[in-house]
Amino acid sequence: MNTLKILVLSLIIVLFISCGDNDDINIGENDFLIFGHFYGECFGSEECVETFKLTDEELFEDSNDNYLGTEPFNFTVLENSKFEEVKNLIDFFPLELLDENETIIGCPDCADQGGILVQYSANGNVDSWRIDQYKEDIPNYLHTFIDKVNEKIALINN
Asked: Which of 73, 75, 79, 107 lies at a CB distance of 3.0 to 4.6 Å from 60, suitable for a disulfide?
């Protein structure tokens, strides 16, 4: 009987150790994070729609500037100094976003406040969201990430 208890206890311990939480989001070799912002009442300047793709080794900019953030994208690689400035954006990606049932969060650009586009691809699965810029209209867990996306876009454009 003691041997059975020890075996069951050992199995439970092994299961708990092997099923630990993964609190980190990483960009693997074939994974990416697409991020950007869009403003409808911006009168056609280059900054109205900005979309970027971050991989584990490079940063790209989309030249199509599609307001809806839908494909086809036309990404061209940016210089490595821009990649170095934004490569840690993935560290701010909120894991709660992966559990969102909605792909539109808040009412992006409904009142000319603009919106944020986010696409995350991991292991061939792509999730996409359009997020309001008004913090009072989105969950608190998104606030820091939205700030970081806007900060990184400003760094790229300088």
From this structure: 75
Outline where DSSP puts E strands in 10-139.
32-38, 49-54, 59-62, 75-77, 104-105, 115-122, 125-132
3-class secondary structure, 120 = strand
Instruction: Note the pLDDT tens digit of each residue in 123-138.
Output: 889 999 999 999 999 9
Query: Does residue 136 sit in helix, strand or coil?
Result: helix
d(CA 48, CA 114): 9
Report the distance separating Cα 58 and Cα 86, nearest Å: 10
CA distance 49 to 64: 9
Which pLDDT score, from 0 to 100, does residue 112 have?
85
Give the count of beta carbons closer than 10 Å to the beta carbon of residue 90. 19
CA–CA separation, 86 vs 149, rounded Å? 9
DSSP assignment letter at 96: G
Residue 52 near residue 65 (C-beta atoms within 8 A): no
Give the residue with greater pLDDT, 33 vs 11. 33
Q: Is the pLDDT of residue 66 over 90?
A: no
DSSP 3-state assignment of 63?
coil
